[in-house]
């Protein structure tokens, strides 16, 4: 069964450094999402992406964040200058056109020191 | 602003018991509601999705109901097994948004032998 994959599974970085989290959505899906879950808290929506542009973003998704679909298979989340409070599990999700179910990847655990 | 709450926060039951997990939401203008399972350190697995026009959905030993007007959903698990041990999350998709899932706090289920 097709799955959303994410790399790396765990990323450790120093405060102020840039990080890029990578996702490979399910191949025929055209809607892409990033969510995050700070330890012990709810899963929170960050951004949705369709047709090469952001369709919706939350107040968390400020100028430090950006998303990109650099090729036909990858979807990336970049954090320009990481803060301690960016430490969280980041989940990528994708969805097929006309369907409602979002399929989630296994997540990348980001630790900012 | 949509708020989603789940009770109980944690539940421990012996194998074989039937159980009910509860989810409540404050804004009844939803498009659909999804139940997910999250294993420790892992991603989210979609279990059931109920459209706002539906009352319930079933998949194997799982049955989810939706009462949109009262802002409630339940997930019924029949004949629980140790493999059902996980955190269960509900998430709603509001009308007026194309993509943003709002998640609940989760119920951590432990099924003991």
Could you walk me through the main structural features you see in this protein, from its secondary elements to its overall organization?
The complex is a heterodimer of chains A (113) and B (113). Chain A has 113 residues and is mainly β. Helix content of chain A is 0%, strand content 50%. In chain A, strands 2, 4, 5, 6, 9, 10 and 11 form a seven-stranded mixed sheet that branches. The radius of gyration of chain A is 13 Å and the shape is globular. In chain A, 35% of the residues are buried. The model of chain A has no long low-confidence stretch (mean pLDDT 94). Chain B is globular and about 45 Å long. Chain B is mainly β and 113 residues long. Chain B has strands spanning 4-7, 10-14, 19-25, 30-38, 44-51, 56-59, 62-67, 72-77, 86-94, 101-103, 107-112. The mean pLDDT of chain B is 94. In chain B, the strands form two sheets. In chain B, strands 2, 4, 5, 9, 10 and 11 form a six-stranded mixed sheet that branches. A five-stranded antiparallel sheet of chain B has the order 1-3-8-7-6, with no helix packed on it. In chain B, a hairpin with a 6-residue loop joins strand 9 (86-94) and strand 10 (101-103). Chain A binds chain B through residues 4, 31, 33, 35, 42-45, 48, 50, 55-56, 58, 91, 93, 95, 100-107, 109, and chain B through 31-32, 34, 36, 41-46, 49, 51, 89, 91, 93, 97-106.
